[in-house]
Amino acid sequence: MKLTDISQPNYFHKVVDCQWACPAHTPVPEYIRLIAAGRYSDAYMINWKSNVFPGILGRTCDRPCEPACRRGRVEDEPVAICRLKRVTADHKEDIHHRLPPRPEKTNGKRIAFIGGGPASLTVARDLAPMGYECTVFERDPKAGGMMRTQIPKFRLPDSVVDEETNYILDLGVNFIGGKSIDSLKSLVEEGYDAIFVGSGAPRGRDLDIPGRKEAAKNVHVGIEWLSNVSFGHTTQIGKRVVVLGGGNTAMDCCRTARRLGVEHVTVVVRSGFDEMKASPWEKEDAIHEDIPIRNFMVPKSFTHENGKLTGVIFEKVKAERDEKGRRNLVPSGEPDEHIPCDDVLVAVGQENSFPWIERDIGIVFDKWNMPVVDERTFQSTRPGIFFGGDAAFGPKNIIWAVSHGHDAALSIHKHCQGEDITVRPEPGVTIVSQKMGIHEWSYDNEIALDERYRVPMRDKEIALKDLRTEVELGYDPVLALKEAYRCLNCDVQTVFTGEVCIECDACVDICPMDCITFTENREEHELRLHLKAPANNLSQDLYVADNLKTGRVMVKDEDVCLHCGLCAERCPTGAWDMHKYLIEMTHAGTSCQQKHQTHA
């Protein structure tokens, strides 16, 4: 097997599984250590640089980092990374003085933004401090997009959205609320140097089944209904409500309906419970609020009398696999079921809608009526017009919109400076030894045995009485410290120097995970089977190093290493060391040139 080149920026990046899985590549262990030290403002600024909305995402993120967390490989629950992010927002001091200063003058380049959601605001956050004149057009009165309109206040208070959107607008961004763009061609003619489309996926999918037109008054599209509730246009609904759909929007709909005084809310999903698109914690929250979820039921028709909805008829289905192993839903043979209700909330997905983009301005659309957008640069087929967030590739989530925004900002900067936007600078990497003494480290390397700490919740009876009463209370400093200690410090890497190794096997003996082996080199598939403990997770690398006097190689399975540092403490020659690895993704800046790896 080839020896490992640890100088490659992405090698150790992949080992920090949480950061690798985060679309914005937030340095998770770094900010968790700062939380443990009580340095909440410093931890917040690390988040603000990468994911832009720590307080918002600390409440609402889909948490792609947590399934990747190494802690989840040694016990049931990963570190509560998302809720620790909220800790930085809840307990920080005033950070206004730490934000980039508003430029004294612009650089002469004008950028227009269509939509004031997370993607557009991220681009503006990167470009405004550089002197770009950023103008954001938003159809709603205030900034935030779907963060403000589609996420219920009991999950995300307006005060949090106001605070974190204002941090960006106060950088000198010109925000024009209550302004819809109905013609991209007209905006192009205003002579902007670049245009960013971050309009989201604003249209909810409907159901075209019998009775839909006749019962239209009492059948509501979920995301539109949530927006109306958010702005106070809708304050009540019938006593019996059926929610159709199994995603996070459906969970928000049913929980919102409960707070409007509904007596019976039922969520009905065509798939099984485990296959629902809703995040596991969203389903748990709905069940905690006594909302039943019915699975394997497909809506066939709406029933109605004299123009008023009376219920929904469902066909019962079951999951079967065809001859190719594909999973299909087929009729179960059971009788159809009628669920009486006064209103239905349809939350079966979202769609993009671009009627305001003329088809003769050089933007190519695909067969799904989506603009053709480069996945690396986020530029459309017309130079100077960029897309990001849900508007680029369909509905995802906030953290993906932030990631798109950073990449698009870099492209826009290069476009405006006449540079090749396809040239993407490497990230900045720093690797620093953590050695303070013979057996001392600059970080806490003791592995906490605590199980994941639950986030305190408001009493259900109180929470269900008010749409704007936040349900989750967040960690206090004591719980935050305990949860932070569960982090395994995966960014503090075990680095091996073969020239000084005497092959005494002390590291092998002391390793609690049996992840170190000294052996003859072989092809990778064979080598994985000849280790002290077989390395079966092919998605995780083997760290292979040579220069041993016997001609053997050192092999460490990155999959199960706990980064505890015992190998480095035990090694009599210093062949093992613990190096803190920090990778900073390249964002738009005054000098976003090629960055190089540094060691200290």
Automatic annotation (TrEMBL):
It is an enzyme of class 1 (oxidoreductase). It comes from the Bacteria. The keyword Cell inner membrane does not apply. It comes from Variibacter gotjawalensis. Its EC number is 1.4.1.13. Coiled coil: none annotated. Residues 492-521, 551-581 form the 4Fe-4S ferredoxin-type domain. Pfam families: Fer4_20, Fer4_7, Pyr_redox_2. InterPro entries: 4Fe4S_Fe-S-bd, 4Fe4S_Fe_S_CS, DPD_II, FAD/NAD-bd_sf, FAD/NAD-binding_dom, Helical_ferredxn. GO terms for molecular function: glutamate synthase (NADPH) activity; iron-sulfur cluster binding; metal ion binding. This is Glutamate synthase [NADPH] small chain.
